[in-house]
Design brief:
The chain has a single domain, classed as NAD(P)-binding Rossmann-like Domain (Rossmann fold, 3-Layer(aba) Sandwich). It is built from nine helices and seven strands, in the order αβαβαβαβαβαβαααβ. It is an alpha/beta fold and about 260 residues long.
Amino acid sequence: MTNCPTEASTLGLDGRVAVVTGASSGLGVAVAEALAKSGARVAVVARRADRLAGLVERIGGVAVARDLSVLEQVASVVPEVVEALGPPEILINAAGSMFTEEKAESEPIEAIRQTLDLNLAAPFLLAQAAFPHMVAAGRGSIVNISSISGRVGIPGIPQASYAASKAGLSGLTVELAVQWARHSIRVNTVAPGFFRSEITGPLYDSERASEYLRRNTPLPTQGTADDIVGAVVWLAGDMASYVTGQTIVVDGGWTAR
């Protein structure tokens, strides 16, 4: 079907340099693979260099091994990408994690800081680093990966600092979208619901928790990383050229109940 609007040629990604964080597992890997398949030149960023090496063997591009929870390591990411591939026009902030399972009243300050550094401060710093290159290009797309935890509380899953960091991404998104619109830089957020990942694996391995997820998700299928990728790639490319400042929820209907 030569006129299919979802073909790679219509996405406007061919030859563009994209940076994808959190690319050693789960959604980050899936997004990196999809962007490369759509013609982008992809720099993959994560702390596990061995996994990045395997991904780069499959999709090309370049691996940038950094622990983004250590903010001192963030500053060198974009310069290395520029040297290896060229100036980035796309930034996908997919790195994120939880560093405590304590209830809100007991979360240790060290875990709170680490969570906020990785999930919120690092995406902000990377956006700042990519900004001048996007200005020079006359366009850019930043997609922050949030969570429905930043929009609704989840009974039985204590995650106060994680939820705060993800809600903060949506706030950062709208502010950057408005400030940087004059440069044709679009900034959006995708907020996934539950899908199997390194963080959520224990939920799916528990029959009780898995049944809880099934019962509270209107769509009858279990979510996967591939279910989230389409929204991210769409926002990254030209088909979403008039979309900015939005948080798009991809959750199987969880928050629609």
